[in-house]
Amino acid sequence: MRSLTALGFVRQEETPPARFSLEETGRLANQPGGDGLLNLAHKEAFFYQLWTHLDDVVRTGKARLPPFSERVHTDPAFIQVFLLALNDLAAKGSAGFLKCARLDGLQRLLDLGGGAAGYACILAQQYPALSITLVDLPEILPLAHRVIAERNLTDRIEVVAGDIFQANLGITASAFDAVLVSHILHDFSEPSCREILRHAGLAVKSGGRIIVNDVFTDTGALKLPETFFDLMMQVENPGGCSHSLPAVQDWMREAGWTDLHYDALYFGGMIQGHRAA
């Protein structure tokens, strides 16, 4: 409690001295949403347990969790908390994201593996003329529908069941002006990432845009948060890691993406490019 007092989350009452009460910062933190930490606290409490097995992961090279596609069936309650926590993180980093991802003049965006619609809602609110289609596993869609409805964006964001490892993705080919691949690649191995980037290209018109928002290594400077994130992915996900920026850019070029440009964000970064004509 004294530590929380020092951090400004609570204050110690003078009488009686053993009582504490929440400061305004603490009240804001103790709630869900972009201003709060409640969902994030639940998420990190779960993943902290995995870190206690770091030595096993290093010895065996095996992650502590099964693939995400299995976990949506075996632990749906936590998956919901996890996805809402990711939405809260998206809200906290929205200013930098929007500054780099300029979508003026575009009409249709595909949010590939968009989860609980965190970034889709951010972009829909920023660009009133933009129509967004979110594709993800069918088990995730009820939560995405709920989040979209809470923000009164049901007329702006379409939700479609699809698989990022299927070439048609459940949508019409070459129908979109841009595709967003946000915080997806770090969950998968190199062959899977190459496949995702190829499938993203099939959805976009000739000359259309791609936005890859993720955490990369080898960006020119060794950053402690990104380094720990890389280790965390290896602990959590089979095949997961923070792929190097040069490698991801090479995979994108092989998939037909050109004019690549990288912007560093507060955490991670963004690669943008165009589909070759």
What does this 3D model show about the protein?
The chain has 12 helices and 9 strands. The protein is α/β, with parallel strands linked by helices. It has 2 domains: 1-30, no CATH class; 51-275, Vaccinia Virus protein VP39 (Rossmann fold), CATH 3.40.50. A 7-stranded mixed sheet has the order 5-4-3-6-7-9-8, sandwiched between helices. Strands 1-2 form a two-stranded antiparallel sheet. The longest helix is centred in the N-terminal third of the chain and has 17 residues, at 76-92. It is globular and about 70 Å long.
* CATH fold category name of the largest domain: Rossmann fold
Query: How does the overall form come out from the CA principal axes?
Result: globular
Strand order of the largest sheet: 5-4-3-6-7-9-8
CATH class of the largest domain: Alpha Beta
Q: Summarize the helix and strand pattern as letters.
A: HEEHHHHHHEHEHEEHEHHEE
Radius of gyration, CA atoms, in whole angstroms: 20 Å
**What fraction, in percent, of the residue positions are helical?**
40-55%
